[in-house]
Design brief:
Layout lengths: L31 H14 L3 H4 L8 H23 L11 E2 L5 E2 L15 H16 L17 H29 L3 H17 L12 H9 L3
Antiparallel strand pairs: 1-2
Helix pairs in contact: 1-3, 3-5, 3-6, 4-5, 5-6
Amino acid sequence: NLFFFIIHPINPHGNRSSKTFKPKKNIPEGSHQYELLKHAEATLGSGNLRMAVMLPEGEDLNEWVAVNTVDFFNQINMLYGTITDFCTEESCPVMSAGPKYEYHWADGTNIKKPIKCSAPKYIDYLMTWVQDQLDDETLFPSKIGVPFKRNFMSVAKTILKRLFRVYAHIYHQHFDSVMQLQEEAHLNTSFKHFIFFVQEFNLIDRKELVPLQELIEKLTTKDR
């Protein structure tokens, strides 16, 4: 067994510590996206994650992916925020997910050629980059009636692919710390929700998920 496994069959947003790695990205109250987020939270509360990730009837796929991407950013932000003291230049000189997988950072604009850096540095680059995408109104429009750009889905896929790497790093390098903090149920619930979501809409290539393949199989076979 790769990881000790507990799942909370509850809404993963309840009673969390308020420490986040980056500022939380808020969806404006009263907006349609806020209503969608509330819908997502209500269905999550039912404990049926396969149902919870499905596109609600009559809703726009881009908007559903946008709302959930913001939500996953906030969840990972909080999860990583709980273990930043353990993820240091000394403990994690490279960004890895176990001995076989190492990630080098490039964002295509500021850093074009992939650079090898420590995990905390990589995750800082990654979360800052994601934040910049989420704050870009042309990519993630928060106003009703503003259309999504044509390339929205490919940007969302890149965001989710990169967010997966933070989960992979936490599981492989910091699971002991997560257990010490008694956060494993929160981590497992969040990751299970994430995996069901990306599987439902085919948002991450299978090969990208290999570092946590064993865990993913364990999570998803329980709910077939």
